[in-house]
Amino acid sequence: MLIDGCGRELTYLRVSLTDKCNLRCRYCVPPEGVKLLEHADILSLEEVLRVISILTSMGVSRVRFTGGEPLVRKNAISLIQKVANLECAPRIGITTNGVLLDDYIDYLVYSNVRDINISLDTLDPAVYETLTGEDALSSVMRSIQSCLVNGVNLKLNVVPIKGINDENIPSLAALARDYNVAVRFIELMPVGCASCYEGLSNDDVRKKLSEVYGKESLCETEGGGPAEYVKYDGFTGNVGFISPMSHSFCDKCNRLRLTCDGKLKLCLASPECLDLKALLRAGASDEDIAEAIRDAVKNKPVRHGMRFTDDRNMIGIGG
Fold first, then answer.
1. In what order do the strands lie in the sheet with 263-265?
2. Is the residue at 1 inside a domain?
3. Would you say residue 260 lies in a domain?
């Protein structure tokens, strides 16, 4: 069991496989682009597997692969299959923009990936291209259908931004009316270039939705994260709200983040981290690495305090 200095049990690991992405979402990648890491500067897949193996032996029971876009990492599927075969195999999820997902869904299902999150901020092709820089909405919609056919636990992540996609909120929520999915509205966090935009609070989102769909009712749903879920009359699925800015959930935080360059981040909003790559490449034993992790998590912040002090953009941290 891995316990931080506040007594919180840490059971959830988010693993960024790459800082590369096939989209250029406005709130994730600045207009001038980002300087990508050299291949030697990111963890090899063998190193990633070793870190996951150590952490699952310490009590981590959920692992979610992120990026960048995780599916652009060569041999990502092979890594996921190996994680599924670990002695202490975790529940595996992946967060993707969905553009390539339809090509890999069969392999992911075979690899026991039970949870798939797709980032989708609009159903309007023109707005999608404005937000992401690519005309790829049709590919994402095919991926959503493939997930539904394969019966995975599908969540659609929406970041509402004033003046960009705020008018699309009801139509996005309607996907949970028509399909057994969770549509989750995530408040914009001022990380890197995202600080140039103004997000909507989930209080405002809920008000918009209640005007269209009526009264909400709270509901329980399986998950390892901070979302609060509701259902509207006539909805097949659920609508979720993740509110790190307006309603802090730090007291329940159970997660760690492994960046693609080998930093174990204790909090998304803090630059404090443990350099696991340095330990791995210095020849540290699994026991030494586990002890370093135990010591580091004692310093996990009590809360983020609404200040995001890491100077990297989200694509360099891992969502």
1. 216-219, 228-232, 238-242, 182-186, 153-158, 113-119, 91-96, 62-66, 12-16, 255-258, 263-265, 273-275
2. no
3. yes
Q: How many structural domains comprise the chain? A: 1
CATH number at residue 253: 3.20.20.70
Using CA atoms, how far apart are residues 165 and 170, in angstroms rounded to an integer?
Answer: 10
Asked if residue 289 belongs to a domain, the reply is yes
In tens, the pLDDT along 264-313 reads 999 987 888 999 999 999 999 999 999 999 999 999 988 765 555 555 55
Residue 268 neighbours by CB distance under 10 Å: 19
| Percent of the chain scoring above 70 in pLDDT | 94
The range of the structural domain enclosing residue 228 comes to 12-317
Has this prediction a pTM greater than 0.85?
yes
pLDDT tens track for 120-165: 999 999 999 999 999 999 999 999 999 999 999 999 999 999 999 9
State pLDDT tens for residues 102-121. 999 999 999 999 999 999 99
Q: Which neighbouring-strand residues pair with 218?
A: 230
Cis bond before residue 68 (omega within 30° of 0): yes
